[in-house]
# Entry
Amino acid sequence: MAPISTPQTPFGRVLTAMVTPFTADGALDLDGAQRLATHLVDAGNDGLVVNGTTGESPTTSDAEKSELVRAVLAAVGDRAHVVAGIGTNDTHHSVELARAAERDGAHGLLAVTPYYNKPPQEGLYRHFSAIADATGLPVMLYDIPGRSGVPIETETLVRLAEHPRVVANKDAKGDLGRASWAIARSGLAWYSGDDMLNLPLLSVGACGFVSVVGHVATPELRALLDAHLGGEVQKAIEIHQKLLPVYTGMFRTQGVMTTKAALTLQGLPAGPLRPPLVELSVQETEQLKVDLAAGGVEL
# Structure
């Protein structure tokens, strides 16, 4: 069983959007995935997202996605919420992936805004509703217009929140004003999907994070969250400011590339990237070392 959750934190509070480790020849590394998942939960994550963008979902097969969900569940499913990314820009395919994730035992679903085809808001509403109708699992929406080209507007979020299985939103919109209104009006559990805005989003009502930086800084993210919840505002600000070089460094270029480089530097499972992603250059790796060290991350 997954850890106990509440309506306010349906997937826990600190989740890492986990990379998908590959072997040297580019195959799925299930043993590495289990070791990485165990490391992340031991570090303080109470949830993991697999098969998201950071998990290189555009270049993993449906069969690999199922294998990964089952492997991570076997490793940490009794200690952490395992949320499966199932979003594509094809509603039918997304529904199929949602049903597969439910069969595999996932605790919840992450559904990204359909990308590239730029549907209208009614299309988004119908897309997400079809996913929520397809299984008995709770759904976290993922609003990231920088990748998808289309935001989920506040009115659409409010409509979707009426569905009993649409319970949360991962916000990577980068707009605190719109987030404030959407949190107030929708009642959805709100998760920061933009590490630089983790603390600001908490201040307007977010309940936690779905983080990339969690790969290297989960204890600090947990401390930031605990300080905020405990009313220790200055301490939360100090942790936020300490993490600024890490936030910056992990996103100087594509986040999967920097994350796998950082994990490799720490001796943790990561492996190569699948094209069109590429390994960091020597110069980029050296800069990443500087950024992580400035934020107190040990390599």
